[in-house]
């Protein structure tokens, strides 16, 4: 009996709160600005520097 009353309370509260939610579209369009700047040359420079470091310190590696 308690389970039925609990279930009824949950259903009743869900129905009571169901009318309170409203969804509307914004007046202005949504703008997403992505400032992405990828420079691949940095990777090449680091790779060259790493290669030079390995060549200069061959005994460490």
Description:
This protein has 61 residues and is mainly α. The chain has a domain at 33-61. 54% of the residues lie in helices and 0% in strands. It has helices at 2-18, 41-56. The chain is elongated and about 80 Å long. The model has no long low-confidence stretch (mean pLDDT 77).
Tell me the series of helices and strands, N- to C-terminal.
HH
The mean pLDDT is 77
Largest sheet: none
Give the assembly state of these chains: single chain
Number of helices: 2
Query: Could you tell me how far the N terminus lies from the C terminus, measured between alpha carbons in angstroms?
Result: 76 Å
Helix content: 40-55%
Indicate the proportion of strand residues: under 5%
SSE class = mainly alpha
Unreliable spans are none
The gyration radius over C-alpha positions equals 32 Å
Cα shape: elongated
Tell how many strands the DSSP assignment holds: 0
Short characterization:
The chain is mostly helical. It is built from 2 helices and no strands. It has a domain at 33-61.
Keywords:
single chain; 61 residues; mainly alpha; 2 helices; elongated
């Amino acid at each position: 009996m308690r389970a039925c009353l609990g279930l009824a309370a949950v259903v009743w509260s869900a129905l009571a709160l169901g009318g309170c939610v409203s969804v509307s579209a914004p007046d202005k369009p949504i703008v997403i600005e992505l400032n992405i700047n990828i420079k691949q040359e940095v990777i090449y420079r680091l790779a060259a520097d790493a290669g030079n470091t390995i060549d200069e310190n061959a005994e460490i590696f």
